[in-house]
Structures are given as structure tokens and as C-alpha cells.
Amino acid sequence: MKIGELSKTTGCSIQTIRYYEKEGLLSTPERTEGNYRLYGERALKELEFIKHCRSLDIPLTDVKRLIELKNKPEESCASVNKLIAQQLALVNNRMRELKALKAELQQMASSCTTENTVEACGIIKSLDS
Amino acid sequence: MKIGELSKTTGCSIQTIRYYEKEGLLSTPERTEGNYRLYGERALKELEFIKHCRSLDIPLTDVKRLIELKNKPEESCASVNKLIAQQLALVNNRMRELKALKAELQQMASSCTTENTVEACGIIKSLDS
DNA sequence: CTTGACTCTATAGTCACTATAGACTTTATA
DNA sequence: TATAAAGTCTATAGTGACTATAGAGTCAAG
Prior knowledge:
The structure is a homodimer. Chain A has about 130 residues and is mainly alpha-helical. Chain A has helices at about 5-10, 15-20, 40-55, 60-70, 80-110, 120-129; strands at about 30, 35-40. Chain A has a domain at about 1-60: Multidrug-efflux Transporter Regulator, Chain: A, Domain 2 (Orthogonal Bundle). In chain A, strands 1-2 form a two-stranded antiparallel ribbon. In chain A, β1 (about 30) and β2 form a beta hairpin. The interface between A and B is large, with 49 and 49 residues. The first copy, chain A, binds a DNA duplex (30 and 30 nucleotides) through α2.
């Protein structure tokens, strides 16, 4: 299949697919006589793997490392484990941040009644303090 | 005070301060004879306001709008209210995403015992599916 | 045979910074 | 007083993970 079809079946934009190729995350595809990229089942799987990793917010550098590890099936997966644990720690941190953030925003939202002027606005006041 | 001192008292890096100025978020400071920026109480307050907004993940374009609104104290603060509500909605969305993310990462982490090889690794398997 | 859809490469833009180079100014030390 | 060190200046490039655009080439249908 050509890049347009791969894009549709995976939901990745065409530019993103080309970008992943450039970054060495997708293996170099064959080309037609007219220089169009040609993909098969393998590319589809590679792309789905990347998509899945990205949906977990795993950065592309780490995705690349995971792909390299996948290609060394006999090695220990301790580093895979570590990578996921780090990712989990990041997510936990971010969640904690967002909770605090949410609390403050809610507090702010409740301090403003729409009839106010900017001058009297509780939101502006709390941002100022 | 000069930019270094402002940087230390606010915790904003020097480059960030200059960046905010360039983007029109900080008012243009006076200069010494040697062309050094000179700041006073006002700049300090402006910068604290921006910092507070940023700590709430409010994008700089919106911070700019808030600053403009602050300077029109007689207008209605409905738009301030709306902006904060949108920000809250964003945060809520992101929290929902992160919850799902965390669940999957935890699931993955628990599917890997460190003694495994990459080949048998539960994490790689679940990323593949 | 031409129109339109698709693809190609190369480049610039996004956001909010961070980092660097190379020059200038000011302060501290010898 | 000379000089070294610290601070500041502007301008530019880099970050991550894309997205958008320009301008050219390819291919299938009418």
C-alpha cells in the first residue's frame, strides 16, 4: 500500500509517517518506479507499535530504544522494565501537579461571578497574589 | 535592579525574562548608560503574575490576554471567567487521559519480572498488541 | 490530453523556552 | 592602575513531536 492508505488505516498523518522514517523509527520502505513509498504488513505493525508507545506518552527516543531492544530478543528485559517504571513515575508526578492545578483553578472559577468588572474580578485578584 | 537580580528573586531564568519582554508580556524596562535593563517593583509584579499563570499551565497567548484585560478594569470579566473555565476543562481532560495511561503502565509493569528475556517480556508483548 | 488526486522533497512554523557565540560593561582583585 | 572575572547585551540555533506549505513530479479516470 502507499503512504495515504497507511495513513488512513493507522490514523497517523502522512507527514508524521515520513517524520518517523526520517528519525529511524520506521524501517526504510521500498519504492515504486515513480518513487512512491510502498508499505506492507511489517510497516503497519511497526507503526502501530510506535502509536501505542506514543499513546502512553513515551518519548520517541525511548520508543527507539524499545524497538532496538525488541530486535535483541535474547537480552534481559530489565531495561524495558526500567523504562516503563520511569514513565509511570512521570505520569504520577504529572497527575499530582494537575490535581493541585485543578484545585486552584476551581477555586478561582468560583471566585468570579459573571456580572463583575475586571477590577473586582476574584480571578484576577487571585492571580495577582 | 538588574536582570540577574530579578532572575534570582523570581526564579525565572534571564533568557526567559528577555523572552517575555520580546513577546510583549513584560513592559519595556529602562536602561542604564551601559544599556543594561533596569527593573523595579512593577516589573517584579508583572513577572510574578506571569509566573502564577504559567504555573496553572495557562498558555502565554492567554496570559497576554489576561494582562490586557487587567489594564481595562472597567470591562466585564466574563472573558476572564471563560478563559479559566476552558483551562479547567483542559486540565480535567488531561487528568482523565493520565488516569488511563497510568492504569495501562501499571498493568504493563506488573507483567514483567526482571529475570525475563526481551523475547518473553510481558511489556513488549502488550506494546505489540 | 487534461484534470484531479496523490505523492515527492525541502523548508519553515509551532510553543515555551534553553543554549550558545561573540561582544560589551561593570566590579573585584593584584 | 591593570587585569581578570562576573555580569550583561544581541542574535541565532536547538529542543520535541509534530504540522503546514511550496513547488514539482506521478498516476488514473474521463
